Write a sequence for this structure.
C-alpha cells in the first residue's frame, strides 16, 4: 500500500508525467513484455514530454541526482545521443561508456561488465549489444533499471515507441491504420519491435521484402506478407523503410544494391500506390539510392526528422517512467 | 577377488538374449556366471546376496557420445570425473570424443587416454580417434595405428567433414581395417551463424537459425558414400523427421548403417530455450515438438538405433553469455537414464526398446562385448528403481561442469547401484 502522501509528492515533482498511471516494469527490455495499456501509458507520457524540448530552457529535472550509464557495444551516434540528451534534459548525470576502447569490449564477459557497472550504483543502464538476448542477460545481473537500446535482431523498443508516437502525431490515432514495413525484416530488431507494438494496438501490418530477407514464420507476426512493393504498398497509410545493411549484399541475400533499389527501393513510382496522404518513415541512418530515393526521403511526405524529435521525447518518457516511480520516503525532500 | 555376488528378485532385461523376466543374476570373478528366471537358485558358499525387490536390472549403459576435458580442459571434466558422473547414471562404458587438446589423432594420445582411464576411471572409457589430423578436415589420420593403440571407432567429434572426397577416402580406408565411422552431420555453409532451430520461435527471439537441410543433405551424402564403400557407418546424431525418413529408406538396402539420437532431442524441444537459456543451446539444436515425436517414432520403428547423452561439459565462462555467443552443449551422463524413463512413463517407448538402444545396439555397432548380461561377459550392470522420484539440482551434480539441460528437472527413475566388472562403482545414497 502506498501512502497517499507519496502520490501528492509525485504530482508536485513531475507535473507532466504524474497524470499517467505508474509504469509496472523494472526494465524496458522489449515491446513483447508490454501490454496495450503499458504502450499507451508510455506514448501519453512521451506526448507530454514533447513541449519540454521545444522550450528555450529544455529541462524537467525529475531525475536530478540519478546516474544514467549509456553502454553501447555497437556503434550508434544517433540513438546514443538521443538517450544522452533525454537523460540530461531530465537532470540525470549521464555517463557514456566507450566500450570499443575499454577493457569492456574483449576478454571481459558481459556478466563481468554488469557486475562492475552495478558496483558503481547507477540508476539506469542503457544497453545496445550485437547479440539477441544480451540486454536481458545483463538486466539479470544488475539491480538498477535497464533499457534495451537494441539487441541483435531481437528488439529495439524505444524505436518502436517513437515510430508509434510519430504516426499518432501525424494521423491522430493508430488503430485501423495500414502500415507497411519494407526491407530487411529477417535481420531487423526495428521490424520485430514495431510489429509487436503495432499488433498490440490493432494496426494492420504488412511486411514487404524479397524472400531471402523474410524470416521463418513471419506470417504469424504481421497481418499480411508481400514480396512485391507495388502490391504491398497499395492503400497504406504509413510506409516504414528499413536500412539495408552492407553485409546483406556481401553474403548474397540480395545480389546487388542496384537490383535491390530497382525492386525494393522506395521511389516515386512505387510510392504512388500508397494513400496520397501517406507518411514515409525510416529509422536511420538512410542509404539514399539503396532503399530510398533521395527525392522521396526529402519530400513533404517524409517524417524522418520528426521521428528523431519524437525519439528524444520517448526516451525522456521511458527514463521518467522507470526511474521516477514516486518518492519512497528515503529520498531528500524536493526543495 | 571379490566374493561371488547373487542378485535375486530383480526384473532383468537383457536385450541381447531377449530376456525380460523376474530372475536372478550371479556374478563371479568380475564376470556374469549365470542368468536365471524365477526365484533364488541357490548361491555359492560365501556369496553376497542382494535382494533387488523387483527393481530393474539391466546391462550397464553404453554411451556413444561423451566429451571430456582430458587432456587439455581438465577444469571442465577429467576422465575421473566423467567416469564418476557416468557411474551415477548407470553408464558403464562410454566412447570419449576426440575433441581434446591435443586431439585424439595419434596413437600416443589413444595410449594416454587408455592408461589414464585405467588409473583413474571407474567405468570403461573407449577412445574414438579423429577421422582427420587435428580435426582439421584435410587428411585422414593413421587408422591402422590408431586401431592398434586401442581406438574403437573414428569420429570427427563436434565437427562435420565437409569434403565428400575426404569422406570417401576415410570410409574406404576404415573398411580396410573394419572400423566403424561415427559422423556428426552438419553442412557448415547452411548452418552459417545459426544457433537454434529454424522456425517462428527463432524469428521471435531474433536468433540465427539452423534448418533441417543442414543435417539431411550431409546425411544423404554420407549414406550414398557408405553404400559405395561398404563401411560400417553410424550417423552420430539426427534431429529431424527428414533424417528418419532418409535412414529408413537406406536401411532397406544397406545393413551396415545405423543412427543415434541424443536424449535431449528425444525429451526436449525448441521452446525449452525460453528466454535465451544457453544450457539448451545444443548441436543439433532442439527442434519442434512434431520433430521430437518423429524421432520417437523413428526409435520405435528401428530407423534410429541408439540413444546417447551427448555429455558435453562446458564451464560458466563460455555458457553464461548471450545466446549467440555461448558455447553449444550440455552435460547428460547423470540424467540419461532418468530422462529416458520419461519416454517409458509417457507410454511413447517400451522399456525394452529404450534399454536396447542404450546398451546392446551401441555395443554391437562398436563390435565390443559390452551391453549384455550373457554368461561369460563382464559384469557391467545397474539396478534402478524406474519410478523413484528425484530432482536434478546443481549441488548434486557430480560432473565438474554444471551445464545441464535438466536443471531443476523432475524425474521418475533413478540408478540405485552400478557395477563394473563385478565391482560396485556407484550407490545411490538417500539424502535426509
Amino acid at each position: 500500500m502506498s501512502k497517499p502522501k507519496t502520490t501528492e509528492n509525485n504530482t508536485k515533482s513531475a507535473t507532466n508525467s504524474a497524470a499517467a498511471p505508474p509504469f509496472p516494469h523494472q526494465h524496458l527490455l522489449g515491446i513483447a513484455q508490454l501490454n496495450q495499456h503499458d504502450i499507451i501509458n508510455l506514448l501519453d507520457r512521451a506526448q507530454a514530454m514533447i513541449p519540454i524540448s521545444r522550450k528555450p530552457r529544455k529541462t524537467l529535472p525529475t531525475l536530478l541526482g540519478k546516474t544514467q550509464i549509456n553502454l553501447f557495444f555497437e556503434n550508434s551516434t544517433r540513438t546514443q545521443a538521443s538517450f544522452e540528451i533525454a537523460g540530461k534534459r531530465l537532470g540525470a548525470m549521464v555517463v557514456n561508456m566507450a566500450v570499443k576502447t575499454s577493457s569492456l569490449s574483449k576478454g571481459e564477459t558481459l556478466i563481468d561488465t554488469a557486475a562492475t557497472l552495478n558496483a558503481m550504483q547507477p540508476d539506469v543502464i542503457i544497453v545496445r549489444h550485437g547479440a539477441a538476448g544480451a540486454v536481458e542477460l545483463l538486466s539479470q545481473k544488475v539491480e538498477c533499471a535497464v533499457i534495451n537500446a537494441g539487441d541483435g535482431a531481437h528488439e529495439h523498443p524505444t524505436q518502436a515507441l517513437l515510430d508509434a508516437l510519430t504516426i499518432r502525431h501525424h494521423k491522430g490515432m493508430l488503430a485501423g491504420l495500414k502500415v507497411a514495413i519494407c526491407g530487411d525484416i529477417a535481420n531487423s530488431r526495428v521490424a520485430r519491435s514495431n510489429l509487436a507494438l503495432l499488433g498490440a494496438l490493432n494496426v494492420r501490418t504488412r511486411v514487404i521484402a524479397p524472400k531471402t530477407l523474410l524470416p521463418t514464420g513471419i506470417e504469424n507476426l504481421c497481418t499480411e506478407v508481400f514480396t512485391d512493393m507495388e502490391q504491398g504498398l497499395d492503400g497504406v497509410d504509413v510506409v516504414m523503410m528499413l536500412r539495408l545493411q552492407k553485409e546483406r549484399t556481401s553474403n548474397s541475400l540480395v545480389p546487388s544494391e542496384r537490383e535491390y533499389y530497382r525492386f525494393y527501393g522506395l521511389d516515386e513510382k512505387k510510392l504512388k500506390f500508397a494513400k496520397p496522404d501517406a507518411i514515409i518513415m525510416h529509422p536511420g541512418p538512410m542509404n539514399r539510392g539503396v532503399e530510398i530515393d533521395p527525392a522521396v526521403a526529402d519530400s513533404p511526405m517524409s517524417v524522418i526528422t520528426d521521428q528523431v524529435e519524437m525519439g528524444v521525447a520517448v526516451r525522456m518518457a521511458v527514463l521518467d517512467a522507470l526511474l521516477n516511480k514516486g518518492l519512497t520516503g528515503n529520498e531528500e525532500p524536493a526543495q | 577377488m571379490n566374493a561371488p555376488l547373487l542378485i535375486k528378485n530383480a526384473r532383468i532385461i537383457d536385450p541381447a538374449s531377449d530376456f525380460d523376466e523376474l530372475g536372478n543374476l550371479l556374478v563371479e570373478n568380475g564376470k556374469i556366471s549365470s542368468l536365471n528366471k524365477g526365484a533364488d537358485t541357490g548361491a555359492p558358499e560365501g556369496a553376497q546376496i542382494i535382494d533387488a525387490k523387483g527393481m530393474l536390472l539391466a546391462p550397464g549403459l553404453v554411451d556413444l557420445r561423451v566429451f571430456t576435458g582430458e587432456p587439455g580442459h581438465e577444469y571442465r571434466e577429467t576422465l575421473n570425473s566423467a567416469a564418476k558422473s557416468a557411474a551415477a547414471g548407470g553408464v558403464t562404458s562410454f566412447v570419449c570424443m576426440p575433441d581434446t587438446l591435443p586431439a585424439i589423432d595419434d596413437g600416443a594420445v589413444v595410449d594416454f587416454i587408455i592408461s589414464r582411464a585405467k588409473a583413474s576411471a571407474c567405468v570403461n572409457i573407449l577412445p574414438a580417434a579423429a577421422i582427420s589430423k587435428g580435426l582439421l578436415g584435410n587428411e585422414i589420420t593413421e587408422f591402422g595405428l590408431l586401431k592398434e593403440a586401442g581406438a574403437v571407432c573414428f569420429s570427427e567429434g563436434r565437427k562435420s567433414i565437409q569434403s565428400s572426397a575426404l569422406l570417401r577416402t576415410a570410409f574406404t580406408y576404415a573398411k580396410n581395417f573394419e572400423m566403424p565411422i561415427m559422423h556428426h552431420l552438419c553442412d557448415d555453409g547452411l548452418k552459417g551463424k545459426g544457433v537454434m532451430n529454424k522456425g517462428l520461435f527463432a524469428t521471435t527471439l531474433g536468433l540465427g537459425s539452423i534448418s533441417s537441410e543442414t543435417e539431411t543433405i550431409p546425411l544423404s551424402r554420407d549414406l550414398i558414400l557408405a553404400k559405395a564403400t561398404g563401411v560400417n557407418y553410424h550417423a552420430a546424431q539426427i534431429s529431424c523427421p527428414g533424417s528418419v525418413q532418409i535412414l529408413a529408406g537406406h536401411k532397406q538396402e544397406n545393413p551396415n548403417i545405423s543412427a543415434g539420437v541424443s536424449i535431449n532431442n528425444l525429451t526436449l524441444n525448441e521452446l525449452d530455450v525460453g528466454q535465451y537459456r544457453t544450457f539448451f543451446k545444443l548441436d543439433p539444436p532442439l527442434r519442434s515438438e512434431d520433430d521430437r515425436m518423429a524421432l520417437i517414432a523413428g526409435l520405435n520403428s528401428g530407423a534410429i538405433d541408439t540413444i546417447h547423452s551427448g555429455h558435453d561439459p562446458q564451464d560458466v565462462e563460455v555458457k553464461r553469455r548471450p545466446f549467440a555467443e555461448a558455447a553449444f552443449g550440455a552435460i547428460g551422463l547423470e540424467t540419461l537414464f532418468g530422462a529416458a524413463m520419461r519416454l517409458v512413463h509417457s507410454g511413447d517407448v517400451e522399456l525394452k526398446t529404450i534399454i536396447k538402444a542404450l546398451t546392446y545396439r551401441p555395443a554391437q555397432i562398436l563390435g565390443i562385448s559390452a551391453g549384455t548380461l550373457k554368461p561369460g561377459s563382464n559384469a557391467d550392470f545397474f539396478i534402478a528403481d524406474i519410478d523413484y522420484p528425484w530432482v536434478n539440482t546443481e549441488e548434486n551434480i557430480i560432473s565438474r561442469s554444471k551445464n545441464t539441460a535438466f536443471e531443476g528437472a523432475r524425474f521418475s527413475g533413478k540408478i540405485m547401484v552400478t557395477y563394473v566388472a563385478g565391482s560396485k562403482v556407484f550407490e545411490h545414497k538417500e539424502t535426509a
